[in-house]
Every structure is written in C-alpha cells, then in structure tokens.
Amino acid sequence: MAAPGALEPAAGSVPGTKVELTVSCRNLLDMDTFSKSDPVVVLFVQVSGSSEWKEFGRTEVIDNTLNPDFVRKFVLDYYFEEKQNLRFDVYNVDSKSCSALKQDFLGQAFVALGEVIGSQRGRLERPLTGVPGKRCGTILLLAEELSNCRDIVTMQLCANKLDKKDFFGKSDPFLVFYRSNEDGTFTICHKTEVVKNTLNPVWQPFTIPVRALCNGDYDRTVKIDVYDWDRDGSHDFIGEFATSYRELSRAQSQFTVYEVLNPRKKCKKKKYVNSGTVTLLSFSVESEFTFVDYIRGGTQLNFTVAIDFTASNGLPSQPTSLHYASPYQLSAYALALKAVGEIIQDYDSDKLFPAYGFGAKVPPDGKISHQFPLNNNVENPSCAGIEGVLESYLQSLRTVQLYGPTNFAPVINQVAGTAAQVTDGSQYHVLLIITDGVISDMLQTKEAIVTASSLPMSIIIVGVGPAEFEAMEELDGDEVRLSSRGRYAERDIVQFVPFRDYVDDSGNQVLSMARLAKDVLAEIPEQLLSYMKTRDIKPRRADP
C-alpha cells in the first residue's frame, strides 16, 4: 500500500506548492447485511502524458458509516501549469486483504487537482459513479495550502558610537545576519548595505522572509555581526550581538537597543563596556501571498482565444495546411488550444470563453477583420467550454477566407479594454494567441502590450509551423524589458513558445499537449502575483 505523501514532480521541475486534500463521502452504498459499510478511499494519480494510473495513497478505514469524514490527508505538490488528474476509488472493506480488488467497490470520481483549488472556497463535491443502476452517493474534497511560514519582515536599524577602525577616517559599517541551525552552526541570511565614513550609521529598511531569518522557529537565535568595510575584502570585525525573531518583533511597540560586544576586546580590557550600540528603529510583518491564496479568495481567470486566419497557413482543406485536421489527428492550432484551455478552464467558474479570429475576410461583405468572433456573434463572442471554442473555430474555417496581414494589436487592445473595467484583483485575464508567422503591426503591438502591462492580464503566444519567430522573442521580454516610444512595460506579461519544440517524436499528441501546457502556463502564477503586489491587492478571505 502506498503511503500518503508528496506527489513526485517531473524530473527537473521546480517543487510546487504543497496542497492538503481532505476527503469525506456522503450517502455511500450500504454493502453490509447486518451493519453499514466500512469505507476506505484510494487515491490514484494519472502519470503525465499517459493513460497510466498510479496508486498514491489511502485514507484510513472507518467502520460502520455511510457518511465518513476521513482524518488521513493526501498531501500533493500542486503545479498550476500541469493538468493533474486524480481518481478517487471508494471501497467497503470486508476482509483483511490489502488488495482493493478483494473489497466491495462503492464508486469512483475523476477530478483535476486544479478543479478542487479553483472551486469556491477550495471545496468540491462530485457524484460517485461506476456501479450500474445504483446511486453511489458523493465525495467531498477540500484543498488547503499547507502553511510554511510565508511571513515577510521589514526592519530598519541604526547604530551609535561604533568603534573607529579606519586610520584616516571613521568606520564604514555594515551588518551581517545569521540564523542558527539545529547543530549549533550559523548560516548567513542577510547583509545590509555599507554606510561610509560614520560611527553612527542609519541603514536602509530591508525585507527578509521569516523562514530565512529563523526557519519559522520564533525563539531560535539570530546572530548579528557588525563590520567595518575594507576595499580589499578584509573587513574589520567591530562586534556582535544576538537576538531572536520573537525579541525583534517586540520592537513594533518600542525601540530596542542592543550592545555590540567584541569578545576579544572584552577579555583584554578590564574597563571595556561595548563597541557601540545598535537600535532597532522599526519592525513590521506581512504575509507573502501565493497564487493559491488569490484563487481561494475568489479571483477568477478569464480565458480569451485569438487564432490566426491569415493565408500563409495554407488552404484548410489541404493536408499541408497548419489548419488541416484529419479524422485521426487534430491540427496544431487545435492541439495548442486544447492543451492550454483545458487547464485554464478549471479556474473559470462560468466556462465561457470569448474566441476571436484575425487576418481573414469575413462574410457577408468580405471585409478584412482582425478580431471577428468565431461564433459569429458580435454581441456575445463567448463559447461554452473549450469544446465550444473548437467547434466555432472549425465552423469559421468553413465560412471565412484566409487572407492577411497578421495584426495582433486589435485583439490585445480588445482584451485590455475588458481587463481595465475590473482592476480590484477579482478578475485576471489570459489571452492565448496562436499564430503561424511574422507579425505585421509590430509597433502597434508593442504599444498595446506596454499599455496592457499595467492591467490584470497575461498574454500567451504559441507559434505553429516552421517559420522563424525572432519578433515574438522580443515581445516575450525575458531578456530585455519591452518598451514603446520611451515607455517601458510595467511587468513582463508575455510568454512565447514555438509549438514545434513540444511535438513528441512518437506522435503522442497527449504528451505534446502536456509538455506545451506546462511551459506556457508556468509563468502565469508569478505574473498574477506581480500585478497584485504592484497594486497592493491582498487576497480576499475565503468564507469559513
């Protein structure tokens, strides 16, 4: 039996947020003759990019109940950018065998971890199915992010009458902070700036995570050394003092003064008092919020799609076209749309997605449009779910004439206009642009992105086909911050990837989609957090 623990992340990936799942069931099938069922829940996790399921863990068995609330939790690593499919099988235990096959099957439920986190208050109820002709009851899942001391401290210190160390001047003092380890050793965790030529320095306020300062142990020793800076790196030791997070935090209501002591001087000089004092001027604590905090607080992700209908894609009826879909295989456009959309839709409560095309002549008058609704409804361009978007996309291929040029700015400005209407953190917009080539309105697009960078939105660009995409790399802004007419983007909001980098050599489309989704969505949580932070928007508290 697999012990409940953290889900193994993919090789090379960054560990995700730890999420704890609590499981309950209601109105289970009663399989015992003289008593109620003795249920257990077995969690299986789908291996990324395959149809294989692996057992992850089991709850305890609760005797004689049809409405169990299990105590044993499942702790998983959560990755926003991955579709993490879970399967919950419920059994009635009527033998001592560990094999689930030898127990009575009470039903099962399939769910993505993102669905649980994206549901209201992180609470999701699903019907159990799998026993023909029977109502199997429901399973209730509650997702909670595990606390790992996410507070951040901001503090400011000054010193008075420090020892003079420089022959021709005063000292150039700076502070070095160390946290103590379990084995009694110390690890450096912060250095202040150097304040030149003074014995009474005032250092700038600085911030540091509480876990870096004391590993979340408020009484653990924090050692602070005071040095005189020397250009050659042989800094002179002035003295030291020790404190703790708990002691520092008391300074919120009063100044705290520490004596700086030099042990060697203290041993040599009988009249030695100290080498100066350090005063804690201010100390404040605030929480470092995560993507999950905002989602659980009610922030909705609004997904919009824009698809390239320019003539360079080739005639959709021809197998060489990037829009060509055979009866056996989706086109590159449809693959990219499904890969990204199927993950984002878990975080959108109404599952209605505005979808546009650009670069085509549209009926009835054959005018070129760069933001025509795929569902042909100008008043309401939203499609029901990703399947609805795909359906409208395929319908548009049959009714419009592929043309040109490739203009991004109109659809970016369209989504930016919507994003500008609600900027309180309750809505965040993600625009997916799928294109085959060289952009025609580069200057206007850069201007649109710079303007959008101050709004609650991100842009994902997926390039399909064999073209070179140098211009897209510039829009991505990872190396150089994007600018337009002297204005710089407030945040990096664009992520570009060429689809060809994710195509599986064996032709496994599921694996290609999983790889693509993982990379293009990996930056969304940080981009959302950067918006919230620059606007000082805190997550709303989820209702208890």
UniProtKB/TrEMBL annotation:
SMART domains, alphabetized: C2 (SM00239), VWA (SM00327)
The UniProt record lists the keyword Hydrolase: no
InterPro entries assigned to the protein according to its UniProt record, in alphabetical order: C2_dom, C2_domain_sf, C2B_Copine, Copine, Copine_C, VWF_A, vWFA_dom_sf
CDD domains: C2A_Copine, C2B_Copine, vWA_copine_like
Domain VWFA: 302-503
Keywords assigned: Calcium, Differentiation, Metal-binding, Repeat
Entry GO MF terms: calcium-dependent phospholipid binding; metal ion binding
Cellular compartments per GO CC: plasma membrane
Every C2 domain range: 1-128, 135-258
Any GO BP annotation: cellular response to calcium ion
Keyword Calcium: yes
Function according to Swiss-Prot or TrEMBL: Probable calcium-dependent phospholipid-binding protein that may play a role in calcium-mediated intracellular processes. Plays a role in dendrite formation by melanocytes.
Family, as annotated: Belongs to the copine family.
Name of this protein: Copine-9
Gene: Cpne9
